[in-house]
Automatic annotation (TrEMBL):
Reactions the enzyme catalyzes: a very long-chain fatty acid + ATP + CoA = a very long-chain fatty acyl-CoA + AMP + diphosphate; tetracosanoate + ATP + CoA = tetracosanoyl-CoA + AMP + diphosphate
Residues passing through the membrane, by range: 37-59
Keywords: Ligase, Membrane, Transmembrane, Transmembrane helix
Matches recorded under Gene3D superfamilies: N-terminal domain of ligase-like
InterPro entries in the cross-refs: AMP-dep_synth/lig_dom (IPR000873), ANL_N_sf (IPR042099)
Matching Pfam families: AMP-binding (PF00501)
A single GO cellular-component term on record: plasma membrane
Listed GO MF terms: long-chain fatty acid-CoA ligase activity
Sequence similarity: Belongs to the ATP-dependent AMP-binding enzyme family.
Protein name as catalogued: Long-chain-fatty-acid--CoA ligase
């Protein structure tokens, strides 16, 4: 939907510096980010999160399911930040050779349906998925560390 204004405190912004560290990423990672930067998930968790751990951030202007795996291979992507529907788009693409030949080890985001989660891992390999949920305006964030 359209962007909406949300009041985000300085403390919450600073806390976003440790987002990727909390989900198991490090400075050696390359993070693929195709989320809008006007959204907290794209700007604060994505870009600021990369700054916080010193990781490389691959910014895409828009998400392309048909080019995703080629982009991941070309850029050496190891972490993918998603909104649930992006994973569904990937699973719904026609199968292509080499879908399991990639360096992606971690997918982190929110809104991933259980059936898509299973299909994603079966089709694309043993990618660790960490589901998170934390409203921009709220004061609590949830992490599904156990999968």
């Amino acid at each position: 939907g359209l962007p909406k204004a949300a009041r985000v405190s300085h403390l919450k912004s600073v806390m976003c510096l440790s987002f990727y560290e909390l989900v198991g990423a490090s400075s050696r990672d390359v993070v693929y980010l195709a989320l809008p930067l006007y959204h907290m998930a794209g700007s604060l968790l994505g870009v600021v999160g990369c700054l916080g751990i010193g990781a490389t951030c691959v910014l895409k202007e828009k998400f392309s399911a048909s080019h995703f795996w080629d982009d991941c291979r070309a850029e050496g992507v190891t972490v993918f930040q998603y909104i649930g529907e992006l994973c569904r788009y990937l699973v719904n693409q026609p199968q292509r050779p080499g879908e399991r030949q990639h360096g992606l080890r971690l997918a982190v985001g929110s809104g991933l349906r259980p059936d898509v989660w299973q299909s994603f891992q079966q089709r694309f390999g043993p990618v660790r998925i960490v589901e998170t949920y934390g409203m921009s305006e709220g004061n609590v964030t949830l992490f599904n560390y156990t999968g």
